[in-house]
Amino acid sequence: MRTIRFLLEKEFRQIFRNKTLVAMIMVVPVVQLLILPLAANYEVKNINISIVNHDNSDYARHLITRITASGYFRLTSLNTTFDEALAHIESDEADLILKIPRNFEKNLVRENKQKLFVAVNAINGVKANLGGAYLATIIRDFNQDLMLEWFQPSRTSQQPVIAVTPTNWYNPYLNYRLFMVPGILAILVTMIGGYLSALNIVKEKEVGTIEQINVTPIRKHHFIVGKLIPFWVLGMVVFTLGLLVGWLAYGITPEGNLGLLYGFLALYLLAVLGLGLLISTYTDTQQQAMFIAFFFMMIFILMSGLFTSIDSMPSWAKVISRLNPVSYFIDVMRMVVLKGSGLADIIPHMGAVFVFAIVFNTWAIVNYRKTS
Amino acid sequence: MRQFLTFIKKEFSHVLRDRKTLLILFGLPVVQIIIFGFALSNEVKNAKIVVVDYAKDDVSRQIMNKIEASRYFELEKRSLAHHEVEAGFKEGQIKLAVVFPANFGADLLHFNRAQLQVIADASDPNLANTLTNYLSTIVMDYQLALNENQAVPLQIGTEVRMLYNPQLKGAHNFVPGVMALVLMLVCVMMTSISIVREKELGTMEILLVSPFKPVLVILSKAVPYLILSLVNVASILLLSVFVLDLPVKGSVLLLFAESTLFIITSLSLGLLISVRAQTQQTAMLISMMGMLLPTLLFSGFMFPIENMPKVLQYISNAVPAKWYYIIVKSIMIKGLSLSAIWKETLILFGITMFFLMVSLKNFKIRLA
Amino acid sequence: MEAVIKTDKLTKRFGDFIATNNITFEVYAGEIFGFLGANGAGKTTAMRMLTGLSTPSSGSATVAGFDVYRETERIKKNIGYMSQKFSLYEDLTVMENIRFFGGIYGLSDKAIKEKSDMLVEQLGLASEKKKLVGALPLGWKQKLSFSVAVLHDPKIVFLDEPTGGVDPLTRRQFWDLIYAATSRGVTVFVTTHYMDEAEYCNRISIMVDGSIKALDTPYNLKREFGVGSMDEVFYKLAREARRSAD
């Protein structure tokens, strides 16, 4: 135990002596947390639409007014040919094209049936899906009103109607920031912990100081623990700063128990730092360590469910995301902060992260060789 | 010129000797493109849903069956009590709950009107929105089927065509995005770290006292990385076409030319960082911590840029990955030619010049 | 005499390359044992095996009575090591380095305090003790390195080219430190390039191409080769080397 005390003293001195490093550790997450949630916004509004109107009728005009007044769409252009509108899609100025056919009104009244033509730029699936759905809803409402206008209310009310009343729990105003802030904070804490721990031992290798350590009778697990604790503490501090930013800038306070959140984080940091140290023991230069850490970080972030839902991944990808500690942390953050989930709800997550922590750290201790 | 070639050779042997790093440099983009090409999609499917059925009649059962048959939903449990919904949400598995009130079918039969309650876990607002939409559509279809025997007047149908990506595959959007992200970060890290490393080891001074122009020293460092990155572009493209079934509709040559420009942009950003950073650790933290998330978010492949606050939209203009993402998308997926993307190309070029000028200026100051 | 290091046919291979080939020697308690050889002759490899940093490929050896295969951690309690590459923490101060390594070797707080005060006094570093080690001149760094290596009063201290790159005066002072250590009973195992330093050793061995080609007192070696200085002994042996220096 005494050995660990000396190791800790040394690590903390080294960290705090490097002023740039400390500044980066503290400032970068705060700044990113202030800016990034504003950028990560899926609320689909301002969908750009080009309309090709071949029918100079009241119905066509009403429909167009409906669309532009809905708040979801922004009219980019009114074109006379479809090709002109397509040019707007090619240049990304428009996301959707609505084509109203010639004699739309006349044929609708005469034949009781008409088709509108919609083309969606489907490269970005979300926009395509939601944009298409919104437009369909508007057209449907328009259609309903038309029917009401033409026929007696008594006739329409004879048709059975199922009214769907949606309720949104935990985030009634559908505020996307509520969703993103906890997730981004989780990523930032992971990056700080992961990178610093991955670089640490390998730096000692590169500089040569590890030799001096290796000829001492120091126990391997003492060494690893001595490396782990400082970053664990830093991770806790960064997380606390992040929670403060979340509260002061976005007014987010955890619905659930704060102690539970910290308890999970304590375990989670051990797993992340263990992975970092493991990378450190496998590499010879900081450059290598950095690239490997980057490799894992990319996969961890994109497969974490931060931006895209894990549910919609193919099953092999779900397996990967289950092997990704970050996905558990993001999940727990959202559950505890937004929904107020309790200990019983996150027990499976805790179990998984506990296993990660044990595996990574044991592996790191075993793989750290004092003798080559 | 001979000297210059000697320097380039030296840099190459540095890069090629470090097998581990080399493996990562080539392996990383390949693995990531494959994983993300297949795994990432914004499509919502298999969302877990619970049904609380107080009605237990034919109508509720029929609607339930329709929900179950849809690929969007996975019916997790039926007929739980209302209070269990909250427990399900808190456990995190359930995304949506549908509540059929008592007498649901009877109401529909006798009063032609019935209420159906849908509760969404809106902690993910987008998902909540989409799922509610899907569910409404299912219910609407059911309702239409009920009315089928009656002639409906004035029916407006819509025919929807999905342009460029009819199956709504995630890869169309994510491959160009991940390509921009990976190229950017790998190039920035490689240059910044390798230059700062020479600074740290003191070998930079040796190079600088040689009768060789500092600019050429830097240039010779960039050449191997440029070539390495072009190899990466090639392997990413091959994978996209042959493994992910992505089209390259436009000119491959143009795509490579634009990629070269973007790689140079990234290399010069790396140079700029290396001029500033004193230790490898700082250089890495700047290029990783500082750049990963902002590049991811501001390139626009995850979140639409036009949804961001105005200030951030301006900031996004300074992110080179954004322009490259647009360029790749235009050439690969839309099949456009240079005339459609000359503006983006010019902007990338301008950013590159800016990075180069600032870093060379700083470089000279340091020497003096 | 009691042997604190014994090796028997100790060998280390890296693939096809044999870095040290069947070396057999003994080092006696309290002596200064010089380990000479051209660059790449295998000195550092041999030393790394004896300090437990590297596992031998074949042969046997004991250090302070402990086996180099199985008891490396017990060896480490009994030795001090100063590597060729300066390996104290440059971003820690003089005092902090001493305190850290004292702590790692399990010295009590009181002992650390006493030792470090004594040390800075002895080295004349009193005014520099709060300075970062990275800011010290090379000569002082080397002296500090040595003092840290013997801080915990080891039985044997291994020095790998300890005086590389320092001026003659500092080298002289450095050897004073070595003599002071031997007077306290520490056995010194030192590699060097400097032939004048070889003269300071009680016995020396000369390695060529991974094998020990000569081992005796400087006096006997000079007589055996019929030359007047260690320089000439070394040249005679090193000329036969087939490995090029690195």
Describe this structure in words.
Chain B: InterPro entries: ABC-2_transporter_component (IPR051449), ABC2_TM (IPR013525), ABC2_TM_bact-type (IPR047817). Chain B: It is found in: Cell membrane. Chain B: It is a multi-pass membrane protein. Chain B: GO terms for molecular function: ABC-type transporter activity. The complex is a heterotrimer of chains A (372), B (368) and C (246). By secondary structure, chain A is an alpha/beta fold. In chain A, 69% of the residues lie in helices and 10% in strands. Chain A contains 15 helices and five strands. Chain A has a four-stranded mixed beta sheet with strand order 2-1-3-4, sandwiched between helices. In chain A, helix 2 crosses helix 10, helix 8 packs antiparallel against helix 10 (220-250) and helix 11 (258-282) runs parallel beside helix 15 (343-367). The radius of gyration of chain A is 28 Å and the shape is elongated. Chain A starts with a helix and ends in a 5-residue tail after the last helix. In chain B, strands 2-1-3-4 form a four-stranded mixed beta sheet, with helices on both faces. Chain B folds into two domains: 9-40 and 168-367, no CATH class; 47-145, abc type-2 transporter like fold, CATH 3.40.1710.10. The mean pLDDT of chain B is 83. With 368 residues, chain B is an alpha/beta fold. The longest helix of chain B is centred in the middle third of the chain and has 31 residues, at 171-201. Chain B is elongated, with a radius of gyration of 28 Å. The two termini of chain B are 25 Å apart. Chain B has helices at 2-17, 19-39, 58-69, 82-91, 104-111, 125-146, 171-201, 203-209, 214-242, 252-276, 280-288, 292-298, 310-317, 320-334, 338-367; strands at 47-53, 73-77, 96-100, 113-121, 155-163. In chain B, helix 2 (19-39) packs antiparallel against helix 7, helix 7 packs parallel to helix 10 and helix 10 runs antiparallel to helix 14. In chain B, strand 1 (47-53), helix 3 (58-69) and strand 2 (73-77) form a beta-alpha-beta unit. Chain C has 246 residues and is of the alpha/beta class. Helix content of chain C is 37%, strand content 26%. Chain C contains nine helices and ten strands. In chain C, 46% of the residues are buried. The interface between A and B is large, with 121 and 124 residues.
